[in-house]
Amino acid sequence: MECGSVTKPSKSSSNITEIVSRFARVCRFRSVGVFSSSENPGHNRHDHCPSNGDVVMVEGCSDATEETECKAEKVHPQPVEGLSRSGACGGGNVEILKLFDTVSSLKLAYIQLQQAHIPYDPEKIKAANELVVAEVEALCKIKRAYKEKKHLGKVKLGSSHSELIQVKEKLLEQLKSQATAKDSEILSLRGQLEDLDLKNAELTDKLERRCLEEEKVGVFNQPSFQDAFNAASKAIHDFAKPLISFMKVSGWDLDLAANSIEEDAVVYSKRCHKKYAFEAYIARRMFHGISIQSCNFEDGTGFDDPVGALIEDPDSGFAKFCRTKYLLVVHSKMEASFFGNLDHRMLVMRGKHPRTPFYQAFVKMAKCVWVLLGIAASVKPKAEIFEVKRGSEFSDVYMECVEGDKEATGGFDEGQTRIKVEFMVMPGFRIGDTLVRSRVYLSKMRS
Q1: What is the pLDDT of residue 329?
Q2: What is the band of 17 on the pLDDT scale with cuts at 50, 70, 90?
Q3: Helix or strand or coil: residue 336?
Q4: pLDDT higher for 200 or 417?
Q5: Taking Cα atoms as reference points, which of 213, 266, 299 lies closest to residue 423?
Q6: Is residue 385 a contact partner of residue 429, using CB atoms and an 8 Å limit?
Q7: Range with the poorest average pLDDT among 269-278, 305-314, 317-326
Q8: Which bin fits 404, alpha (ψ -120 to 50), beta or left (φ > 0)?
Q9: Suppose 372 and one of 107, 168, 232, 296 were both cysteines; which one would form an S-S bond, judging by CB atoms 3.0 to 4.6 Å apart?
Q10: Residue 365 above 90 pLDDT?
Q11: How far is Cα 287 from Cα 383, in angstroms, rounded to an integer?
C-alpha cells in the first residue's frame, strides 16, 4: 500500500478521533492493535503508513493479544471479570451489574471506533462514534441516578430524624407538663398536710387537757360532789318558792295540790312542811328517765347567764334537757292558770327560750341539776342513783331528813317508835363504797 493512495480524513473526523483519544487516555483503556496482512509488526511503521499520521496506532497491542490478522480483523478485548457472577448478586447490586455492562459496552464501542480507522471508513467512524457517545450518556445517566438516589436517601434519613426529633420533643413537653402538674399537686398536698398537722396538734393539746380534767374530775372528790348535790337540792327548793307563789296568786288550793302529789294522805308534823311535797314533785320530774352516762355537764355551764347559753346554742344537750324538763315540770294547766296563756310552752316547744323571770328561775335550777348529773357521769368509779320508796324504814346510812335528824327523831324512845319515810325529796347516789344520802320527809308512828 502506498502512502499517496490514502485518502486524507476530513476535519470533523479528526475532531472525533481526538475526542476518542482523550477519552481513552482518561479511562486508561488498553487498546487492541490493528494491522493489515501485508504489514509486519516488527517492520518500521513509517514505510507503510501515511506521512501525515492521521491513522492512530496505540501502544500495547502485544499485551492485548499474541496474534492478530489484519484480513480477519480479529479483535481480542480484555475480559471483564465478574460479569458471569451476576446470578449470584442480590437485588441491591443490580445497579452495579448495570454499570459493569455499560462499561463493557463502552469498551466494545471504542474498539469498533478504532477498527473503523483501518481501513479508514467515515461512515463506520460516525456510527462507532455515535455508539460511544450513547454509551457515555448511559454512564452519565447511571451516575445521575446514583447521585439522586443517594441524595434522596439522605433526605429521607434527615426527614425520619426530624420526625423522630419532633415526636421526642412533643413527648418531652408532655412530660414537662405532667411534672409541673405533679409539682403543683405536691405543693397543694403539702399545704393540706401542714394544715392537718396543725389541727392534729391542736386536737392533741385539747385531748391532753381534757384527759387531765377528766383525771381531776374522775377521781372521786366527796366534798365536791356533795357540794353539787347540795346546790341542786337548794336550787330545787328555790324554784319551788315562785311556783308556790304563782299557785297562791292563781287561787290554787295548796293543801289539795300537796295531797294530790302522793296517792295516800301524808301526815305532816307542820303545815308549812307541805312545801317539801312540791320540792319532791320537781325533783321527781327533773331526775325522771335520766341516764347518768349520757350527760355532758360542760354544755351551758361555762356561762354566767344560762339562758344566754341556750339562745347561743339551741341544739346543745343542755338546751334539749331544759326543753324536755320544762314541759314535764310545768304542766299546761298550771302555766295557763299562772299567765293566762301558753306562750312559754309554745316558745319552748319551738326551741326558743324566753327571758321571763319565771323561765330564768327554772333554767337556773335546771343548770344545777345538769351539773350534778354531769359530775356523776364523770367520776370514777361510776356513780349510781338510787331512790327510797315510801313506807321504808328510816336509816341514817342511806337517808337524811329534810327537817334535821334531831327534830325528826328526838323525844322518842327508839324501842317504842318506828320512823318511816313518807316520801323522798331528793334521790341519793352511790359511788363505789361511798354514799351520798338521799333526802326524805319522815313521819313518826308508835310500834
Answers
A1: 93
A2: low
A3: helix
A4: 200
A5: 266
A6: yes
A7: 305-314
A8: left
A9: 232
A10: yes
A11: 14
pTM for the model stands at 0.51
State pLDDT tens for residues 242-251: 999 999 999 9
Residue 23: per-residue pLDDT: 54
Using alpha carbons, list the distances in angstroms from residue 268 to 66, 250, 271, 389.
Answer: 170, 24, 6, 17
CA 245 to chain centre: 68
Distance in angstroms (rounded) separating the CA atoms of residues 106 and 274: 150
Residue 51 has pLDDT above 50, yes or no: no
Q: Position 14: which residue type?
A: S
Nine-digit cell string for 7:
485518502
Burial 69-101 (b: 16+ CB within 10 A, else e): eeeeeebebeeeeeeeeeeeeeeeeeeeeebbe
Distances (CA, A) of 38 to 8, 104, 253, 419, 431: 21, 31, 181, 182, 157
Helices (H) and strands (E) counted in the chain, each on its own, are 13, 6
Per the listing, cell 471504542 goes with 110
Q: Is the pLDDT of residue 354 over 60?
A: yes
Q: Which of 92, 74, 73, 93 is nearest to 83 (CA)?
A: 93
- Angle among Cα 178, 184, 185 to the nearest 5 degrees reads 85
Among 95, 93, 83, 108, CA closest to 141: 95
Cell output for 399: 337517808
240, with CB counted inside 10 A (0-12, 13-18, 19+), is: buried
- Nearest CA to 56 out of 101, 125, 114, 98 is that of 114
User: The dihedral of CA 410, 411, 416, 422: what is its sign?
Assistant: negative
pLDDT at 171: 92
Q: How confident is the model at residue 31 (pLDDT cuts 50, 70, 90)?
A: very low
Residue 336: which residues within 8 A CB-CB, separation 6 or more?
Answer: 342
Structure-block grid coordinates of residue 215: 383525771
Helix H or strand E segment including 128: helix 122-218
C-alpha–C-alpha distance, residues 400 and 375, integer Å: 21
What are φ and ψ of residue 399, in 5° steps?
A: -135, 155
